[in-house]
Amino acid sequence: MLGYTISQIAEITGLTAHTLRYYDKQGLLPFVDRDKAGNRAFKESDLQWLAIITCLKKSGMPVKKIREYMDWCMEGDVTLHQRLDAFEAHKRFVADKIAELESYMHKIDYKIWYYKTAIELGTESVISQSNCVWTFEE
Q1: What gap in Å lies between CA 11 and CA 99, rounded to an integer?
Q2: Does residue 115 form part of some domain?
Q3: Which site among 43, 70, 99, 111 is 20 to 30 Å from 53 CA-CA?
Q4: Which Pfam families does the UniProt record give (predicted)?
Q5: Is residue 134 over pLDDT 80?
Q6: CA neighbours closer than 13 Å in the CB half-sphere of residue 5
């Protein structure tokens, strides 16, 4: 087999063919070969690259930064430090995002408790009305 088609890769990865074409146009898929007709011919090893790209994209890395990372990968060992730095910076970004989401989860848990308590009591009038809203400092 010459390689997987874009449709097959879309089915395997859960990415849409449109997304894969977009990634290719943005320079994120320099490793993908083309067949004689000029169609993308993905290899099994390309799935690993796509997994990393998907991880970085879904965890909030901008396409421009992913392209920079992919360029470094294509350059080889001379960019190992840059790639490490990029992952360390992205890890800090993701950790900060997780902390932010945990803060929101705490507020959501509180509101669930609030409404369950109000339902049990049959009213929220015995619970402080200030519990209905938060300030940005909370």
Answers
A1: 33
A2: yes
A3: 99
A4: MerR_1
A5: no
A6: 4
